[in-house]
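Pasting as-is:
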Amino acid sequence: MRTESNANENSTAAVAPEVAPQSPRRVTGVEVLPGFPLQVAFADGLTGVVDMSGLVHSPKAGVFAALANPSLFAQVTIHYGMIEWPGEVDLAPDAMHAAIQEHGQWSL
């Protein structure tokens, strides 16, 4: 599972130190599963699945349509406690955390 990057690994940290998010709802780990789900872990210990298969294949996917390309989908990272892909496509953790806490997964 990928984990949050260390601020010292970022070249911008030399100019201004990165502020580490403190929210217990921040994402601390993400793993791409077969298809289009993600296994995610949060700072408070909650874990669950985010199923994006419906969203990336939807005619209303918008910026998320590009993620239907499996190689791009696999480039997921964690940035400031959020899940992010190239092109600044991201998922904020609050709604994700709430849905996983209630249902064990979040289907988009």
